[in-house]
Design brief:
192 residues; alpha/beta; nine-stranded mixed beta sheet; 9 strands; 30% helix; 45% strand
């Protein structure tokens, strides 16, 4: 699966690079420089901890506003899972959304249905680490690790999920939406 994601990202990069070529041959020879800046996010939701992230920017392009919008959508995602309100998911997922978990693949409709039905375990807290965002044209690629605290409604037991993700954000009807999410690595921690 990692190879598929790497190939997809490489394809996106090549496609964006081809589309962004300038017609003047002297401009084509200029090196495109990227830098990493670390930004802080408005950590205003008590059940979602996302303090800072890295933004990879190309010289001459200010994507901070786009990054802030994407981070707002990112923060809304676990809140939607906690609320189990289909309208919350509808506001953040693109029409063509796909979700690839560690052992599941969902289209948009099935994902919302799955996440809004009652389950034994509920998400009580999510912490994000190693959050990095990069743009390729009108596509944002967000990679991160999240640490999820779940509580059993039956027993009150707690478990922790540690998941590495890659999300793809696309512009849809003037708003950034989640186009796809792919789990890369998963580890479950059950306290004794």
């Amino acid at each position: 699966m990692r190879q598929i994601i790497v190939l997809f990202l490489l394809g996106q990069f090549i496609l964006c690079s081809c589309n962004s070529r300038k017609s003047d041959s002297s401009l084509n020879n200029e090196a495109k420089e990227s830098t990493i800046i670390e930004l802080t996010d408005n950590n205003s939701t008590p059940t979602v901890d996302l303090v800072k992230y890295k933004l990879i920017v190309d010289s001459g392009k200010d994507r901070k506003s786009d990054a802030e919008q994407i981070l707002k959508v990112k923060r809304k995602w676990p809140l939607a899972m906690q609320s189990k309100n289909p309208a919350e998911f509808d506001s953040i997922l693109s029409k063509s959304f796909t979700f690839k978990g560690t052992d599941s693949l969902y289209n948009r409709h099935d994902y919302i249905k799955n996440r809004t039905s009652q389950h034994e375990w509920i998400i009580t807290f999510v912490k994000y680490e190693n959050v990095t965002l990069q743009f390729f044209g009108d596509t944002g690629i967000l990679s991160y690790i999240n640490h999820i605290t779940n509580k059993s409604l039956k027993t009150g037991n707690i478990e922790y999920e540690h998941i590495t993700w890659v999300d793809i954000y696309i512009m849809e009807e003037g708003k950034w939406k989640i186009g796809a999410a792919h789990a890369i690595d998963y580890r479950l921690e059950v306290p004794q």
